[in-house]
Structures are given as C-alpha cells and as structure tokens.
Write a structure and sequence with these properties.
Layout lengths: L1 E10 L2 E7 L8 E6 L5 H13 L15 H5 L5 E18 L2 E19 L5 E3 L5 E6 L2 E4 L2 H11 L5 H4 E3 L13 H15 L2 H21 L6 H52 L2 H33 L2 H7 L1 H16 L8 H8 L15 H34 L7 H39 L2 H51 L6 H43 L13 E4 L5 E4 L5 E2 L1 H4 L2 H19 L4 E5 L7 H14 L2 E6 L1 H4 L3 H7 E8 L20 E3 L19
Helix pairs in contact: 6-15, 7-14, 8-13, 9-13, 10-12, 11-12, 15-17, 15-18, 17-18
Length: 711
C-alpha cells in the first residue's frame, strides 16, 4: 500500500487541510515541516480515524473531533470528514487458475456529524466508511461488505502502532516506566501482528473450542464424569485468562491515558513556572533584601571614608603644597637672619622689674633721668606688642612647617581618593541593581496566581496516584494470567490422560482426537514461525541499528555498542565489549534509544515484506551530527514509503539528504503562534493549521518564524 493524498476537514485544528505524499520510486520520501503544536499528531490521528474509525482514536473513542474554537462561537454541530487516496497491489484472476498482481487505486472517505455537549464531550453520528475504486473510466463504489476487508488487507489495524508512530511513543518497547512483562508483550504483539501470527492464534483458539465441544459429547461410563470436570476446568481457565487479558488491556489503555494527562499537567506546571515559582521568588526577594541592607551599610562606610579623606591633613598638604613651600622658604630666611625666634616685650618688661639695665644704667625710679628711661621702656613695650604677636606666630609656624613634607603627597591623596570613589560607584551600582531586581521580582510575585499552580500540582499528584493504582492492576493481572496459563496446561495434560483411557469406539473421542491433533499442528507452526521469524527480525534490527549509530562490531575495539538482538523471551537487548549486556533505556543516550526502536520497526517491515508507509512524527529529536544523518538515511533506505513530520531543528543538518531523497516537501503553520513565534500577521481570522508549499530551504509570509527574544 502507498498513500497518495489526504483531505482533512474540521478535524480539531485541521479545519481544511490537503496533504499529498510522494509515490516516486527513487524519491519516495515525504517531508512535512511543522513546528511544535502545529497538528503533526492530529494529522496522524485523522488518517487512522479515516482507516479504522473511532476505535482507533485515543482513549478508546473518548476523543472530541470538534474544533475547540467553534464551541466558543456557539456552533451546535460540525461536519467532520477525512478522505484518503491510496494504491494497493491485489491478486487478480486471469482465468484457468492463473493469477497476477495488479495495482488498484482507491479513495476512502469517512464522514460524521459531531455535536458537543455541555460537559465538553461530543456525540458523534454514524461514521461508516465509503470506498471507491478509481479507474480510467471514473470511480465505482465498492460494496460496503467488502470495505473492511480491503482496508485490512491494505493496512491491518493491528499494525497501526507500527506504521503510525512518533519518536517518543516508539520508545515504548524499551521505556523504563513499563515492566519487563509489558515491554515483552508490546514486542510480541508487534511481531505477531506484522507476521500474521495473530491470525494463526485465532485459528488455534477456534480449534481449541471445537475440541472442547467434542470432549463434552464423549459418553463413557468410566471416565465421562472426570473428562467433563476437566473440560469445565479448561473452559474456566480459558475464560479467566480472557477476562484478565481484557482487564490487562484496559489497564494499559488507562496507563497510557494517565501518562498523557500527566505529561500535559507537567507542561502546564512548567509553563506556570516560566512566570515564576512564587515560593522560590519569595526566597529570592528575602535574599535580595539582606544583600541590599549589607550594600547600604557598605555605602555608608564608604561615604564616611571619603569624608575623612577629604578633611584629612594629607588633603590639606596636597591642596596647599605651593603655599607651604613659599612659607617655609620665607620662615627659613627669617630664621637664618635671626629674626626668629625674636620676642621684645617679655625682655623689656623684665627691665622694668630691675634696678639696673643690662647695660648698667640706673633704672631706679628715684631720679628724673631714671623716670625718663623707664617711661621710654614702657613706650617701647607698647609699641612692640603688635610686632611681637606677629613674631610669635611666625616662630610657631616656623617650628610647625619646617618638618612638613609635601613631596608626592598629591599623588598619594589622589590615588586614595580614586580607589574610594571606585568602591563608592561599585557599591552604588550593586545597590541599584539589587533594588531593580527586587522591584521586578515584587512585580512578578504580584502577577502569579499561586492557587492555580497549587491546583495543578494537586492534580498531578492525583494522576500519579491513579497511575500507581493502574500499574498495580497491570502487574496483578499479568501475574494471574501467567499462573492460570500454568494451571491450564496442567489440566490439559490431565484431560489428555483421561482421553487415552476412553473407548476407541466413541466417535466424539475420535473427533476430539482429530481437532486436538490439528490444533497441535498449528501450535507447532506458530512456534516454528515465532522462533525463525524472531531470529530474522533480530538480525535485521541489529544490522539497521549498528548502521544508524555508526558502530562496527567487527572492526572497532573502541565501540561501546557491539550488538543488538531480540531474545527468545522477546526482550530488546544491547551488548557492549566482551558481551556485556546494556540496558537500552538506561545505558543508551537519547539518540541511540530512538535509533534502536526505529530499527526494530523497520526490521519488522523488512522481514514481513509488506509494502506500506512509515508515518513518523519527530523521529530525529535528541539527535545531532552523524547519528542524525545516518538514522534518516537508514530510515529512507529501509522503508518503502517514508512520511516524516520534522521540526525546523530536526531539518537543520540534514538538508542535503532531503534534497536527494525527498519527492514531496511542504510546510504546516499554526496561525495561533502569531505574534510570539510567527513574523507576519496571518491572513486568516480564525485558528486552524494552514499549508504553504515552502520546502526545507524556503520561507514565505505564511511560515516565516521568529527566534525567541533574549531579555
């Protein structure tokens, strides 16, 4: 089967979208460039709904197709439709028992009317598919009774998880969150479905029922009662296994649903925390307040140091240097001329207390001559008082300044002042920054709706509790199924022993014998196919995986990965040097984990020799360089029709490969990304994914995107 095109209308975000896929043998790759939240997963879901109906939708059909923005407009119902054109090789009779393969083209259409309810759920009308065969003469309607068989032949529903996948869900075969038994079951189911073993399993179950019916008809006086009891026990165990298997599958569906919801809650919490974690912001604000107080104290101390520096003697000497040097020169000159120190008044006052002058003249106050002398001395004293004050000041200044040095004082003061000024400016800058950050945090705290974040966290905790409960149910049912299978085998062995004792003339016993023998033949066929095909899948997976990651098990002594295989217990394992077994989910990086799961899917396709599309969403996430290019090349080479949804980041680095192998490339854009992520205002006025024909090298006014703003 090969997809040709698809037309999707009113399927969630896909209001009116046409897709076309490359059918070129040489350039079979189709690349749909699409950013996150641009309908990649919705496209896959729409295609699966068209093929298989509501049972293929997430959550077992509890999934609204109604475009959410239409509900807000008060619209009561909407017509939903998906149409797929595909090619299919079919066996055609040529007469006289001869047959050949002929390629036919079909158009599959599925339409429904959906009405939203008040609870947000949706009521969906009957959605039976319609199929037309397209010929050169036009189209002819295929009988409704044949539609399901043609679709099943084209792309079996049991394989939808293999052919429709994405980079994350593909890793479910090795994910650490699943138990070993669950991972084995997933691998087993994928192999059995792709190789048609599930059909044989149904045949075996049917034969088992026929054998059980014949055993109930056996009539023998000696062993009939025992055989009937054993037959009842077999039926009881088979019913238990079937019921528990259904509960196990329901638990696995619930686990998948809860994990998806949990992932959504984690994203909502992450988005809320982008604005800010209120508790963390409050702690940050307290820290900023403490740092601001310390900065203010440092600022006060720095101002005080600068004030002391400005009022210091060093500052005075630096400012008065030239005047000090002039004064020192003048005072030194006066000192050398004996003008300093020189005080007259005390000496003259001492003469008045004497009877005789230093020169011997009489100063007694008993003669007129002496009185004249004394009056002259007193007059001189009065005349000398002002000059003595000046002389005393000059003498004091002389003794003070003669030891003062002004050499280099200006440079020292300027350096000290400069350093203190730098400290002051740095502290002021730090304090200003702290205040701005504190104001910003304060504003952010006021904007945060902490109750919403708390509610999200409570919902997440509830989902985790529900997930733990379903994991417990899953483990319990798997244990019950395994135990019941063991008991069933024991009862069947006992029943076989009783049967051998029955009379050989009983026709029902013979029929039971035949039915059981045929069942055993089919059991043997399934067992052989399982072992042989498992080995083929294992070998192909190993070859593709090693090629993807660039490992060479034969020639490289440095390679950390030497081999990958599927064990007889349906485990995917990887081996390192010296046969050391690696845990794929824990010991491999993200790129290698995606590579090994893609290699497993491609190996299944290769071994089954089925021609069908591989529709993969974001297969190159977490990859770069050689591995990214190699994984893309191997996927293209091993698949018959590869359809990839790639983000812009995934395309970066593999453009040359796309140039060579891509027969069809176009771009999907979500107008709702304007103005944050889209550069140009959309021409449409409503939400809904739009398409442009830009390839991986081109942009236009529709798809041109912005980078994130750096604040």
């Amino acid at each position: 089967m090969k997809l040709i095109s698809a037309s999707i209308n009113n399927f969630r975000l896909l209001k009116s979208l046409d897709l076309n896929f490359s059918t070129d043998e040489k350039k079979s790759l189709t690349v749909i460039r699409a950013a996150n939240e641009t309908g990649k997963t919705t496209c896959q879901t729409a295609l699966m709904w068209c093929l298989y109906g509501s049972k293929a939708l997430p959550n077992k059909g509890d999934y609204s197709l109604f475009p959410s923005d239409e509900i807000g407009k008060g619209k009561e119902e909407v017509d939903v439709s998906v149409e797929i054109d595909f090619e299919l090789d079919q066996v055609v009779g040529l007469g006289k028992g001869n047959h050949t393969l002929a390629r036919s083209t079909y158009r599959l259409s599925r339409v429904c009317v959906e009405k939203p309810t008040r609870k947000g759920e949706a009521r969906r009308s009957a959605e039976a598919p319609a199929l037309w065969k397209i010929t050169s003469q036009g189209t002819e309607r295929v009988l409704q009774s044949e539609v399901a068989g043609i679709i099943e032949n084209a792309l079996p529903e049991s394989l939808k998880g293999v052919y429709f996948t994405d980079g994350d869900s593909a890793m479910s075969f090795i994910e650490a969150a699943a138990t070993q038994g669950v991972k084995r079951k997933r691998v087993t189911n994928a192999i059995e479905a792709l190789l048609g073993l599930n059909v044989l399993e149904r045949t075996i179950k049917h034969l088992s029922g026929i054998a059980s019916k014949f055993s109930q008809e056996i009539d023998n006086k000696d062993y009939a009662a025992d055989l009937e009891k054993l037959n009842d026990a077999v039926g009881s165990h088979e019913e238990d296994i079937e019921q528990w298997q259904e509960k196990l599958e329901n638990a696995e569906v619930e686990i998948k649903k809860i994990r998806k919801e949990l992932s959504g809650k984690e994203k909502q919490i992450e988005d809320s925390l982008k604005l800010g974690d209120k508790d963390a912001l409050l702690r940050r604000r307290t820290d900023l307040e403490k740092r601001s107080l310390r900065a203010e104290e440092t600022l006060k101390s720095t101002y005080k140091s600068i004030n002391l520096t400005i009022s210091s003697e060093v500052c005075s000497r630096a400012v008065l240097k030239s005047h000090i040097e002039v004064a020192k020169s003048l005072l030194n000159s006066m000192s050398k001329s004996k003008q300093l120190p020189k005080v007259n008044v005390p000496i003259l006052e001492e003469l008045l207390d004497r009877d005789f002058c230093f020169c011997g003249a009489n100063l007694k106050d008993d003669t007129t001559e002496c009185s004249v002398r004394r009056a002259s001395i007193s007059k001189t004293i009065e005349a000398s008082r002002e000059s003595d004050i000046e002389q005393e000041a000059a003498s004091s200044l002389f003794y003070q300044v003669r030891s003062i040095s002004t050499d280099g004082v200006a440079d020292d003061w300027i350096e000290t002042y400069t350093q203190q000024s730098k400290v002051l400016m740095n502290v002021q800058s730090d304090l200003s920054g702290l205040q701005k950050e504190r104001e910003s945090i304060e504003s952010t705290i006021n904007e945060i709706d902490d109750s919403h974040l708390q509610k999200l966290r409570e919902q997440r905790d509830g989902l985790n509790a529900a997930l733990q409960k379903q994991n417990s149910v899953q483990a319990s049912k798997m244990t019950q199924i395994d135990a019941s299978k063991i008991r069933l085998k024991e009862v069947e062995e006992d029943r076989e022993k009783v049967r051998r004792k029955l009379g050989k003339t009983n026709l029902s016993a013979g029929n039971w014998d035949i039915a059981n023998a045929v069942k055993n033949v089919f059991d043997g066929v399934v067992d052989v196919l399982r072992k042989e095909e498992l080995q083929k899948v294992s070998a192909e997976m190993n070859r593709i995986f090693l090629a993807m990651i660039g490992a060479d098990s034969a020639n490289s002594d440095l390679s950390l990965i030497r081999k990958a295989e599927l064990t007889d217990e349906f485990d995917i394992v990887v081996y390192g040097p010296n046969g050391h077994q690696l845990n794929p989910d824990q010991d491999l990086n993200g790129a290698s984990r995606r590579a090994i799961t893609l290699a497993f899917i491609l190996a299944l396709t290769k071994v089954s020799e089925v021609e069908a599309p591989n529709i993969i969403d974001t297969p190159l996430g977490m990859m770069a360089g050689y591995v990214k290019q190699s994984v893309l090349l191997r996927t293209i080479e091993e698949g018959t029709q590869v359809i990839l949804f790639l983000t812009h980041d995934e395309i970066r680095g593999v453009e040359e490969i796309l140039d060579k192998y891509a027969g069809t490339v176009f771009t999907l854009t979500n107008p709702g990304h304007y103005p944050k992520m889209l550069a140009n205002k959309p021409s449409v006025n409503e939400s809904g994914v739009v398409r442009c024909d830009c390839n991986h090298h081109e942009i236009c006014v529709i798809c041109e995107r912005k980078g994130a703003e750096v604040v």
